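Friendly challenge for the regulars: who can give me the structure tokens for this chain first? No prize, just bragging rights.
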Amino acid sequence: MVVVEPIRNRDDVQLMIEWLTLHSAVKESDRQRNLMLFLSGVNLGFRIGDIVKLKVKHVKGWHVQIVDEKTDKPTKRKMPKKFKNAMRQYI
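First reply, four minutes later:
Bragging rights claimed.
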């Protein structure tokens, strides 16, 4: 079994954001998508299975509301201002 560790260092998070912005894909739209997936995980703390299923209808004001895939329970998370602005630009 492979053990996966979270990124704990803010500098590593910043390096990942820079790499995703510049090098993660050939097409600009794919780079933006990859960056938003990463930022969603960092800012909202959802599991990847929940992140890839996110839709515009899940965004309600300053919150993202989903039904958690693992527990099947409703989950509501507040978006930080920087993340909300980035999401607005992406959408």
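The mean pLDDT is 91. The beta strands are 59-60, 63-67, 74-78. Your move, everyone else.
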